[in-house]
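#structure-requests
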Amino acid sequence: MKLPLFNPREVPSIALSSLAVGAVLPAHALSVGFIKAALARQGQSHAKLSSHWINTSLLRSDVSSVEPYRTAAVLVLLIENGDDIDVVLTVRASHLRHHAGQISFVGGALELGETALQAALREAMEEVGFDNAGLHVLGELPIYHTITGFAITPIVASMTAVQWREQNIVIDEQEVDHMFTVPLSVLLNHSVIQVHDYTWENQTRQYYSVTHEGYFIWGASMAILRNLDMLLHACIGIDE
């Protein structure tokens, strides 16, 4: 499989806020309750939401189509910490075949007979010893296709900070280097999100990134978060 070769940190970028693509999300939109309601509304036949949702250039793939896709799932885990929400991310082990050393959600390929939810929870247990007791599943985001041939279903779920602190995290070093959290308000902040353009196979391509405390978050993980951001903005738009 031919892949683009470049250092994603070195590709020139501009802040998403400079493109005037959406106002700052109000505080209530960055709550578990609003996120759950927004995820549920994807399946409703609400014409205004559907139009707004599609017209925001919903991200469905990295840079090219690869078939057949291998189905996979990731757990977008939100930690409720008072009025704030933190997002759990991992740094992948440096020896892995796909996306080595990159930042990602816990997750992986579906096994035979598994649902996306089952796969995401199994992978979370295997990768970091995550116990899903007390986990509140909020819904799913649209499937995202990666250049390496995966069709990823993002499962969005939450738990309280107390429940998170009670987790007996055990990192599988064959899969994960370490785990960390980033405030959702940072990951969805248009002044922080950078938009990168580059050329590959005679086409202009684009990806998003956020740099936080030395972590460079980009690729499929940022695309999934950008889809969440667009959905929240769409729901704010129809509620105004």
